[in-house]
Amino acid sequence: MTGTLDTESVTMKLRKFLGYALGGLLGLFVIATAGFGLGIAAARTTKPAQVRLKSLVTHAVFGVGLYVCALGVSDVLRVHA
């Protein structure tokens, strides 16, 4: 069944993706910012909401870049296989 769209499969993949993304952000906010001395979720900074938003946007752009790169690599591998 190639070429068909299985909504259950797409939903499960989306849930898995969101789980990893949210888990990564939680780790970032709880572990990384505290490790850098900024407190949990950058609470010790002068503008914690701004720091959190910048971190969220930065990681989202990085994730999109990884996805686009993976699409390109998979396309190249499919052509040369």
SSE pattern, N- to C-terminal:
HH
Shape: elongated
N-C termini distance: 22 Å
Oligomer: single chain
What's the overall average pLDDT, rounded?
Answer: 84
Rg on CA atoms, Å: 18 Å
Counting structural domains, the number is 1
Number of helices: 2
Please report the total strand number as a whole number: 0
**Poorly predicted runs of 5 or more residues:** none
Major beta sheet, specifics? none
| Beta fraction | under 5%
Classify the helix fraction into a percent range: over 70%
**SSE class:** mainly alpha
Summarize this entry quickly.
The protein has 81 residues and is mainly α. The chain contains two helices and no strands. It has one domain.
Task: Name the features.
mainly alpha; 2 helices; single chain; 81 residues
Written overview of the protein:
The protein has 81 residues and is mainly α. The protein has one domain (7-80). It is built from 2 helices and no strands. The protein has helices spanning 7-35, 48-80. The longest helix is centred in the C-terminal third of the chain and has 33 residues, at 48-80. It starts with 6 loop residues before the first helix and ends with a helix. The mean pLDDT is 84.
Describe the secondary-structure layout.
Layout: H1 7-35, H2 48-80
